[in-house]
Design a protein that fits this description.
This protein is an alpha+beta fold and 395 residues long.
């Protein structure tokens, strides 16, 4: 997945405060509400954190997020303000507050993984509402554009000898309105393509719209029941269906990346595995997608350090790897997984997490490449992350 949601963190002043909290409402099997959990976390904050930052985090957590099922929240602040505030579909096993020179990696990447850019198209026989939103996002108000078909004769009648002509006129108006909706939808996708186009509302109109749109819309389209424009729409049920559609898309996205990585690794071209090789291709800006095994993030990659400069692509396994890169300041050490994600973010690469049981790269880190040449390291073998003993040492 892309890390656009984390872009505001790049180049910001530390220390970073990361809050990873169970936001499940009280009364759903949870004794404490989010505000009470935050009070306990705040007491664990070190003295160096600006109290105003902690106040802002608390104020955000005090506002209900509208979810009534088990879920989590992750908030990240730099030295001055909150930059990331996202809802996570799975609450953490333990709520925590981390303060350091970089955000806590796993909850932040989880937050980016949750992000699915949606264009929700709610239609009826007269027009549609096109709403852009991102699943899990808290910081932005959804943007809605209303499309009006302009043909009002959309109601069929069954009375009198004019019934057939009335029905024909209604059908014609119906289809013409669908053509207007389809045109607006195609333009919206062409202007800013979402991950998913969510189609909901009047089923017959949706059928007409789908007949009119091109392949770019069809490739992204998914039918989600329960939404619409008129009264009687059950918003709660529709939001549940919407979250399910986003979750299904995330699973497909992850599986597709891991399949591409396995294929490229198998043919020895287009992918690399192992910490040293991945550091090299990150430094050269070759990475399209960074692949990290969760087991390695929680284990070896959390204890190993890399050398980094002021810029994201200035990184190496040793300080000598940065010689000749024109550093503006002396190199410093950074936790390996943080440095890797920082470098991926710096070249607009995505990040995919290999879950337990997935085929994982050597050392728990790999990369799909944008390009390669004769000096690019060759791919390496995969291992099963479920069998930790087969993961090679970071050395």
């Amino acid at each position: 997945m892309q890390l656009h949601a984390l872009k505001p963190l790049l180049g910001r002043p530390g220390p970073f405060t990361t809050v990873y909290v169970d936001a499940t409402p009280a009364g759903t099997g949870i004794e404490l509400d989010t505000a009470e959990r935050w009070k306990g976390l705040r007491r664990s904050a070190p003295p160096g954190v600006d109290p105003a930052v902690l106040d802002e985090i608390g104020a955000r957590l005090a506002v209900p997020d509208g979810r009534h099922d088990p879920h989590g929240r992750v908030l990240v602040a730099d030295a001055h303000e909150v930059l990331v505030d996202r809802i996570l579909s799975v609450p953490p096993a333990t709520s925590r507050l981390d303060v350091g020179p970089a955000p806590a990696l796993l909850p932040v990447v989880r937050a980016a993984e949750e992000a699915v850019r949606l264009l929700v198209v709610a239609v009826d026989r007269t027009g549609a509402d096109l709403t852009r939103l991102t699943s899990g996002e808290r910081n932005r108000t959804p943007e809605t554009t209303t499309v009006t078909g302009g043909h009002d004769d959309v109601h069929k009648t069954r009375e009198g000898d004019l019934a057939r002509r009335a029905q024909t006129r209604a059908e014609d108006s119906w289809q013409r309105n669908a053509e207007v909706i389809a045109h607006a939808l195609e333009k919206a996708v062409a202007d800013d393509a979402p991950d998913l186009v969510v189609l909901t509302g009047d089923l017959r109109t949706l059928g007409f719209v789908k007949d009119c749109v091109g392949q770019a819309v069809r490739d992204r389209a998914v039918d989600v029941p329960g939404g619409g424009r008129g009264e009687g729409v059950h918003e709660g049920a529709f939001k549940v269906h919407l979250r399910e559609a986003a979750a299904a898309f995330r699973a497909r996205r992850r599986e597709a990346v891991l399949a591409r990585f396995a294929e490229a690794t198998g043919r020895g071209d287009g992918a690399v595995s192992g910490l040293g090789d991945v550091v090299e291709v990150l430094r050269r800006g070759q990475v399209a997608e960074l692949v990290l095994a969760i087991g390695a993030i929680e284990g070896a990659l959390s204890t190993r350090e890399l050398w980094v400069g002021a810029e994201p692509l200035q990184l190496g396994v040793s300080a000598g790897d940065l010689d000749g890169l024109g550093l503006s300041a002396a190199p410093r050490k950074m936790t390996a997984h943080v440095a890797l994600v920082r470098a991926a973010l710096g070249q607009d690469a995505g990040v995919t997490l290999a879950e337990e049981g997935d085929a994982a790269p050597r050392d728990g880190v790999g990369a799909l490449l944008r390009w390669s040449d004769g000096s690019t390291p060759s791919g390496s073998l995969l291992s099963q992350s479920a069998d930790r003993s087969r993961l090679r040492s970071l050395g």
